[in-house]
Amino acid sequence: MEKIECIISYAQENLAKENTGHDFTHAERTARLAEKIITEDVLYVEKFIVIASAYLHDVIDDKVATFPAKAQQDLQYFLQEIGCSLQEIEAILEILQNMSFSSEKFFSTNPLSAEGKIVQDADRLDALGAGGILRAAYFSGAHGQVIYDKNKPPQNFHTKEEYRKSTTLINHFYEKLFLLPEMMNTEYGKKEGARQRAFMQEFLTQFYQEWQI
Q1: Domain HD/PDEase: where (predicted)?
Q2: CA 109/CA 103 separation, integer angstroms
Q3: CATH for the stretch 3-211
Q4: How much is the pTM?
Q5: Could you tell me the end-to-end alpha-carbon distance of the chain, in angstroms, rounded to an integer?
Q6: 132's torsion region: left (phi>0), alpha (psi -120 to 50) or beta?
Q7: Nearest partner of 62 among 6, 29, 107, 125, judged by Cα
Q8: Backbone region of residue 21 per phi and psi (left: phi > 0; alpha: psi in -120 to 50; beta: other values)
């Protein structure tokens, strides 16, 4: 079995019980979006690193993994077992450790590689548009958040702990999702992100009209 096939199986197994919108189908879409970015922007990068990182990016994330440090150790051992080089393992882990929204916003992370920037954009594109709306609602419901509260305006968080506290589904649009297009690295990411955000803004216009009836 080729390395990438092993990685896909590993991601599928480790994300099988995930129920907040960071499941294996999200990993699959992220990988497809990453390939789309490479093609559309004609980028010359290590494609294996991009696709492997896209499939694995949530496996060690603390939103998904109960014990992130152990999840990282397990992943590193797995990558060694399937024959990844030390350079490949380091490149993948570097992306996974530094690509998240919270890492970029609240910590001094290492600059992402060209491959990492593609994976980061692909992950963020899947948080936008119609699919992004559904994933946000799925995540919000799984964490017991209310849909909307007019007495709770969106927040400007200063720490990861503040960011992870319960808010509302609609606030999440303003606190994170609408910020993503300006944070994109690639031309395709910027263009597609802006288009998807416009759709979400139209959705909110309709939402407010219905909510106030």
Answers
A1: 19-137
A2: 6
A3: 1.10.3210.50
A4: 0.94
A5: 57
A6: alpha
A7: 107
A8: left
Closest CA to 112 of 39, 49, 40, 63: 49
> Residue 46 is encoded by which pair of tokens?
């290590």
**pLDDT tens for the chain, residues 1 to 213:** 699 999 999 999 999 999 889 999 999 999 999 999 999 999 999 999 999 999 999 999 988 899 999 999 999 999 999 999 999 999 999 999 999 988 887 766 789 999 999 999 999 999 999 999 999 999 999 989 999 999 999 988 878 777 777 689 999 999 999 999 999 999 999 999 999 999 999 999 999 999 986
Tokens coding 44: 């010359």
DSSP string, 96-148: HHH-SHHHHHHS-PPPPPHHHHHHHHHHHHTTSHHHHHHHHHHHHHHTT-BS-
